[in-house]
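Continuing from the previous page...

OK, I double-checked the sequence for Catechol 2,3-dioxygenase against my notes and this is the correct one:
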Amino acid sequence: MTDRLITHLRHLDIAVPDYARQVEFYTNLWGLTPIAADSGITFLAAEGSPEQYVVRLREAEEKRLDLIAFGAADQESVDALAHRLGTAGVRLVSEPGKLRTPGGGYGFRFFDVDGRTVEVSCDVAVRQHRRVEEKEAIPVKLSHVVINSPDPERTRAFYERHLAFALSDTLFHPKLGEAMYFMRCNPQHHSLAVARGPHVSLHHASFEMRGIDEYMRGTGRLLRAGVKKVWGPGRHLAGNNTFSYFLDPHGNTVEYTTELELLDEDTWHPHLYDFTQPEVSDQWGTANPMDEFVAAESFNDPDRGVFVAPPV
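Thanks. Re-ran it with the corrected sequence; updated structure tokens here:
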């Protein structure tokens, strides 16, 4: 799309009360690498990713989603997007300027239609990353983020109108209607998805593994450690990616995945998938069945950060 200024997903920032336990989980169990830390804040990188960090953890009295960050090509794109949003009445949290987070860069923040803080940046220094080796069961990168909204049609429309995200596929239920919109900002099937939920919250964050073997080894490591598995292992139809969902210590759903589909955007036509069909949820048939109890695990707690910008 000629008016698409967003290039990719950068990182997810969350705040939690039990900060030490959360850092322990994401480093020693999930497989991310601490690259910087200060009092009550830790930046975690994925070894295979050029992004400075893919998760930021912050200590706070209440659990919340601090922000979702996306990349842009250059300062001109950042400025153009800030101007476009401001002119359209979107509430800016900060004006474009220099970033003080690891890697520096240039960016700004705004509230989306549900009150989430979103950051867009460019010129962030590329982190020295490496090839993840065979049998090394750690995340290569942050794959995608899924958010809950009580009005997902409105949320989808916001990202389409203001950020030029495109719809890749939709999940629906014959009696309940459309339930999830998979949205892309590049040829990857989705970098963002919007799910129908009872309140604004994080649905899940997904991390890409090197391949099927590494994905299964990572899944097994968490199972042996007694981490609560929500759903999987299996392979979705929409996106054709593998999935194993777990709960972090504060009840956020996190996913190991691999092989997420890359689309030819010029020829792709969105599908409407009935997720009551077993093969839609899991082509392999190896995961525990999707039901209302599995779905409810990813509703998460109501986000305390709605229309409240994070302090850092």
